[in-house]
């Protein structure tokens, strides 16, 4: 019965994830896992955690099958799920060990945060998809992102769920026995309610009008590898339609225009007459993603600011590269599961510098697609004074799956985390304008050609999360690691 309950709970966590707005399912789903592992041996905890993770990730990452299935079968999808579920297994084992300590709910939540941190960094740079925090694109826990970012939101969900589990275990005992569990279940909720009034959307540096171009892409899956020209043509055409609408007075003239990832293809000189003509016609700077081969021979995924009359200006290079796509570990083996081995003969080169452009009245912080899943990219931009954040992305690989909505949820969390509006520019959707409180002002449909235009607030005040940086996450990891180490302390002999 426990095995069945844990499997159902893992699926329930998926059912509460975007695009469904059922954030409140996460704590009770986690509670079932916590209930199953309390007082058990680490080996049993590992099994329950593995099952919970697999039941959650199999449907959550179904877009991998949509992407690769026709040519590679289900094996890449199942392989990724298994590897990532192992980290849930480690979390379950650690939760079982610390569940015997006083204040068990706190330690169980902390070791889960530690397991997420490990999963987000290894192997091959980690895979943060499916963090508990990313199920909370709205609701009572989201405001906590402004205090401690994604790690604190994950901790809050896990603490509340662990508290529910302890109450359920002790409900037949005296209130004194289950009061601690009840407090653990309620404190994160009260904390979220207390922080909520501090979440502001008011402009601090004025406002700017931003236009987003979504030119659409052919729904070809892997065939998109060789459709660069069509992708580019679609977006240039859509951008010129935007210019038509501006000239006709149907759309107000923006201060900048954001195009998605992978629209340009540049050599070291950054020559692009079509972008020159487009920027000159619009009369405002463009922010456009593309691939480039640089003077050092390195191949990079970057975003370039394109100015009217002068062309390429400031640039940002993607920091977190997608394993088995933009960087290929174990190339001979990877050829069995990735078509990118033959498409890109060498790995792309990553950067470690935040992307911040001065574009008209905006100090724009940028990341690219996969970057938004990691905590450091937009934190660095916000610390460098970004007043608006942008996420150029290319999600056309994944068909009509939930992947784009899952990524949008990450952008919504980043908006609250740093108190900034976020502009998402996707090739085939979902493109969106996100307010600093995480609500979505505008968004497009999947696989449509559609342009967005909105006035957004520019904000410069740093949130607590921006100021503290990685400290809350590392603090929670240390808390969990310390509790786990305490369970392995030497036992004293009873002999005199």
Folded structure, characterized:
The strands form 2 sheets. Strands 1, 2, 3, 4, 5, 6 and 13 form a 7-stranded mixed beta sheet that branches. A 6-stranded mixed beta sheet has the order 7-8-9-10-11-12, with helices on one face. Helix 1 runs antiparallel to helix 2, helix 7 packs antiparallel against helix 8 (175-195) and helix 7 packs across helix 14. The protein has helices spanning 2-15, 26-37, 42-60, 62-72, 75-98, 104-119, 145-170, 175-195, 228-247, 273-282, 331-334, 340-343, 376-383, 403-418, 464-468, 471-486; strands spanning 207-214, 256-258, 264-266, 286-293, 299-307, 311-317, 355-359, 362-366, 388-393, 422-426, 432-434, 440-443, 450-457. The longest helix has 26 residues, at 145-170. The radius of gyration is 23 Å and the shape is globular. It has 496 residues and is α/β, with parallel strands linked by helices. It is built from 16 helices and 13 strands.
Q: Helix and strand layout, with pairings?
A:
Elements: H1 2-15, H2 26-37, H3 42-60, H4 62-72, H5 75-98, H6 104-119, H7 145-170, H8 175-195, E1 207-214, H9 228-247, E2 256-258, E3 264-266, H10 273-282, E4 286-293, E5 299-307, E6 311-317, H11 331-334, H12 340-343, E7 355-359, E8 362-366, H13 376-383, E9 388-393, H14 403-418, E10 422-426, E11 432-434, E12 440-443, E13 450-457, H15 464-468, H16 471-486
Parallel strand pairs: 1-2, 2-4, 3-4, 8-9, 9-10
Antiparallel strand pairs: 1-13, 4-5, 5-6, 7-8, 10-11, 11-12
Task: Describe the structure concisely for a colleague.
The protein is α/β, with parallel strands linked by helices and 496 residues long.
